[in-house]
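[Automated response] Your request has been received and processed.

Submitted sequence:
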Amino acid sequence: MNYIYYTDSGLVGMGKIKVELNPHKKVHKIIRQKTKEPYVCVISDDVNFIEESKRYKDINEFIRSIEN
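Generated structure:
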């Protein structure tokens, strides 16, 4: 699986993660945390979604596009 990790200041990291999730879903998990610095972590087996995410200035806009 691939993941991207965003905070309000932008893309923080991306990489691979081992998770057993539903293989039929394009986006497996969207994790939003309201910690000291809020973050969003998106996990997907679609390699292209990392490239897609770079086209968005706002992570919430990107998330809306993949949730639909």
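Summary generated for your ticket: The chain has two helices and four strands. The helical segments are 48-53, 59-67.
If you did not submit this request, please reply to this message.
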